Amino acid sequence: MNHHIKTSTSLHMEAPLYEMLCLYEEQNRTSLHVPGHKDGRVFDENSLKHFSNLLSIDATESKGIDDLHHPSNAIKKAQRLAADAFGADHTFFLVGGSTIGNVGIALSLCQPGNKILVQRNMHKSVFHGLLLAGAEPIYIAPAMESTTKAAMVAEPYYIEQALKKYPDVKGVWITNPNYYGMSQDLTQLAAICHQAGVPFIVDEAHGAHFGQAETVPPSALSKGADLVIQSTHKMLTSMHMTSMLHMKGQLVSRERLAQVLGMIQSTSPSYPLLASLDVARRHLVERGREQLKETVQRLEDRRKTLSENLKILSIWGGSQEVYARDPLKWIVSCKNELVSGYQLLDLFYEQGATAEMSDPRHVVFLFSLHEKEGDIDKVVSSIKKVDETLQHWSEKARPPKKELVFFDPEGTLYQPKVSLRDAFHMPRRKAALDEAVGSLCGETVLPYPPGIPLLTPGEEINQSHIQTIRHLYAMGAYFQSPSDDTMESIYIIE
């Protein structure tokens, strides 16, 4: 774990983008340009107490304000500082979340008909980007951690074999860490990609803090990745919707990527959101790295002590199959599977603790880089109370145990019979679930979170898919934007 990033703190004391907005506010010029609230002069009075401070710096690309799509001043400098803090050659600020970064990567790397090797358990935005690009992804089935059944990066051997079978792919695209904070060593994988002459792309949405202290896993950039997308708002301190896209090396055209991002990002981006990326970087370097180190120590001490005293619940502590575990994530489950993860989510919510996500087995707690003892105590207390509650539950309450199949065996390669783009545009019709077996899917079936599609347009529907959909629905899983809220029917391609 000696790949943490070291930068000069003195270099990062300034926040040029935030300071530009402060200067804009101080000058107090009469706004005769957008936005229509005129720096907060015209706004809903009942909500001004919450919005007033932000409205005064909610600027636009007017004179004296830099342009995200052609940065030459404060934004350019802020992105350079971010690249230094995260170990990149260049960093792009994003205000559409990692979704915009993933779509931008797909459109930059792929022309219609191009193949790209994609880990099957990617976020939906990757598939949407490939659909818009007209790409033809080759899916590779992920590895599965044996205790939690969480999907992870496939072993490098499988990806190496895939590159030999499909030497014309435009890149290899994986997710690391997964939603549960499990991270694999990417060194060999990066070398395999570069030996094949293709870029290595990592969706590191949940790993913006990776590499920022020796007590957390190393970053994908430090392991040789060419493109890395990070949700700065998820694990660091920027505002919601803000992310960073990092580049390293010469395998991807920076000019092309900048051009694409200029097409898909708003021409009126939120400057307060952009500035929050700038100050999140400053906070990270000035204080956050040390806070992260202290938080990890606090969390690990409490997790170990708590785990020894739990009767019904357990907190996952790693396994030999996983190279590194994110200590800011606690994966909580029921030892005897007395209750599902969806039920645990509700039980913790009743105790005032809102988990990040739930699945059939677990809930995931996500901590910040600066957690004080008192805040951790509240979480520990809620876990103890739920553990005590479950000790009195009857075994009759146990949900039926069923092994859910989300993906093919590790390393399995699969190219849908119809491309994502073609499937999206082809005529489709509704069919009852049982009647859909053997047909090509006409929609995205998306248990959420974490937003990994069970089925994408153009994939063949099998009996395992139907059983998994029904079992998830019966357990209380949430499906995002299904064509049928009851999950009794599905769109298929005619």
UniProtKB/TrEMBL annotation:
<keyword id="KW-0175">Coiled coil</keyword>
<dbReference type="InterPro" id="IPR036633">
    <property type="entry name" value="Prn/Lys/Arg_de-COase_C_sf"/>
</dbReference>
<feature type="domain" description="Orn/Lys/Arg decarboxylase C-terminal">
    <location>
        <begin position="414"/>
        <end position="476"/>
    </location>
</feature>
<keyword id="KW-0210">Decarboxylase</keyword>
<dbReference type="InterPro" id="IPR052357">
    <property type="entry name" value="Orn_Lys_Arg_decarboxylase-I"/>
</dbReference>
<dbReference type="InterPro" id="IPR008286">
    <property type="entry name" value="Prn/Lys/Arg_de-COase_C"/>
</dbReference>
<keyword id="KW-0456">Lyase</keyword>
<dbReference type="InterPro" id="IPR015421">
    <property type="entry name" value="PyrdxlP-dep_Trfase_major"/>
</dbReference>
<feature type="domain" description="Orn/Lys/Arg decarboxylases family 1 pyridoxal-P attachment site">
    <location>
        <begin position="16"/>
        <end position="316"/>
    </location>
</feature>
<keyword id="KW-0663">Pyridoxal phosphate</keyword>
<feature type="coiled-coil region">
    <location>
        <begin position="282"/>
        <end position="309"/>
    </location>
</feature>
<dbReference type="Pfam" id="PF03711">
    <property type="entry name" value="OKR_DC_1_C"/>
</dbReference>
<dbReference type="InterPro" id="IPR000310">
    <property type="entry name" value="Orn/Lys/Arg_deCO2ase_major_dom"/>
</dbReference>
<dbReference type="Pfam" id="PF01276">
    <property type="entry name" value="OKR_DC_1"/>
</dbReference>
<comment type="similarity">
    <text>Belongs to the Orn/Lys/Arg decarboxylase class-I family.</text>
</comment>
<dbReference type="InterPro" id="IPR015424">
    <property type="entry name" value="PyrdxlP-dep_Trfase"/>
</dbReference>
<protein>
    <submittedName>
        <fullName>Arginine/lysine/ornithine decarboxylase</fullName>
    </submittedName>
</protein>
